[in-house]
Structure formats: structure tokens, C-alpha cells
Specification:
It is built from eight helices and four strands. By secondary structure, the protein is mainly α. Helix 4 packs across helix 7, helix 5 packs parallel to helix 7 and helix 6 packs across helix 7.
């Protein structure tokens, strides 16, 4: 069977689930959205019934004809203006850029890193293994482990260089956030085999 990318809603829900923020409440009022500068649509956090409503499953997010959240639009969320008998499937650069630079994905990467830190503490090896288990449901292979360890070491040095007031532990936590964000960008996370 050929690879099949998850639908836009499933990608967002998977990111929320892995980061540990998914609000699994069913029913109730929809999650409101608002248009902001640049034609971007985001969740309207000022109108939330509860503090976790912004992290509800995507099926509860209000969908309007011309207003789609960026992380949904780039992954081919269908327009509600017409019938959608089959979803289009595209693989474009904007998808990776949204996962790398989007506010939602950066925020969720931070929550994901915090979840890993709470569960395993400060050991780098355990952090890497835990992040892979949570995001990809498997342990990293030897190459992935080595690349992840190198990424964390290099990013820790970058953060320490950029901000001399950061402790080594705080810089390592920020570097873990970068690893978590990279895991969200992997084909293994976005595609079903």
C-alpha cells in the first residue's frame, strides 16, 4: 500500500495528543476562530469557555468558507463551500515551513518537551528515547539516536552562545524543544505506512 499522509485535522489532533495538551471533551460549544493580520486565522482564546478549549479536537474548531487555520489549510483541509467527495493530497514546501515556523507548532513543541522532561528528567539519552516513543511509538535507531544527540548538543551550544544568562540545563531544555519540533516534521509522524 502506498504511503498515505494524515488528513489536516488528524495532524493537528496528533500534535496535540503527543504534546499532552489534547482536550478530549466531547460535545459542547465549538472552538471560535478569528482573523488576524495577514489573512491568518487562529483560535480566538478570548472567547474560550474553558482554559483548555483551544486544545480540543479539530472537529470542534469553527470552519468557515474563507477562513482556515494555516496548519489546516496547508495540509489540504477541504473548503466547506462545496461538496468534498475526495480530499486533494499535496506535498508542498509550505507544509514544512508551517510546521517549522508556525506559532501553534512551536507552542506545542514546547509542551511536548515539557512532557518529556516531566516523565524522564534530565538524562539526554532518556529524553531522546521518550520523545521518539511519544511521537513515533518506537525507539530511535542508532543513526537517529546519534543525530538527535548531535542536534541537542549543537542547539544547546547555540542557545548558550545567544544568551549568556541561560544555564546549561535551560539551554538543553530549549534544545529538546527543537528535537520535539523536528519529530513533528518527520514523514514517520505525518504519514501512515
Amino acid at each position: 500500500m502506498p504511503l498515505r499522509r494524515l488528513e489536516s485535522e488528524a495532524i493537528r489532533d496528533s500534535v496535540l495528543a503527543v504534546s499532552g495538551t489534547l482536550d478530549r471533551a466531547s460535545g459542547g460549544p465549538p472552538v471560535p476562530v478569528k482573523a488576524v493580520d495577514g489573512g491568518v486565522v487562529e483560535i480566538d482564546t478570548e472567547k474560550m469557555p474553558t482554559h483548555t478549549s483551544a486544545f480540543r479536537r479539530t472537529i470542534y474548531v469553527v470552519s468557515r468558507r474563507n477562513y482556515h487555520m494555516a496548519e489546516l489549510r496547508v495540509f489540504d483541509q477541504p473548503s466547506v463551500a462545496t461538496n468534498c467527495t475526495a480530499r486533494t493530497k499535496s506535498a508542498v514546501v509550505l507544509q514544512s515551513l508551517t510546521l517549522l515556523n508556525g506559532r501553534f507548532d512551536q507552542e506545542q513543541s514546547g509542551f511536548f518537551a515539557e512532557r518529556v522532561i516531566r516523565s524522564v528528567g534530565n538524562d539526554v539519552m532518556e529524553r531522546i528515547e521518550s520523545a521518539f516513543r511519544l511521537a513515533l511509538s518506537r525507539r530511535p535507531d542508532a543513526d537517529e539516536f546519534a543525530l538527535s544527540k548531535t542536534l541537542i548538543a549543537k542547539q544547546t551550544a547555540v542557545y548558550r552562545q545567544a544568551d549568556k544568562t541561560l544555564t546549561p540545563a535551560a539551554a538543553a531544555d530549549l534544545a529538546l524543544r527543537d528535537l520535539c519540533q523536528m519529530l513533528f516534521n518527520t514523514s514517520r509522524f505525518l504519514y501512515v505506512e
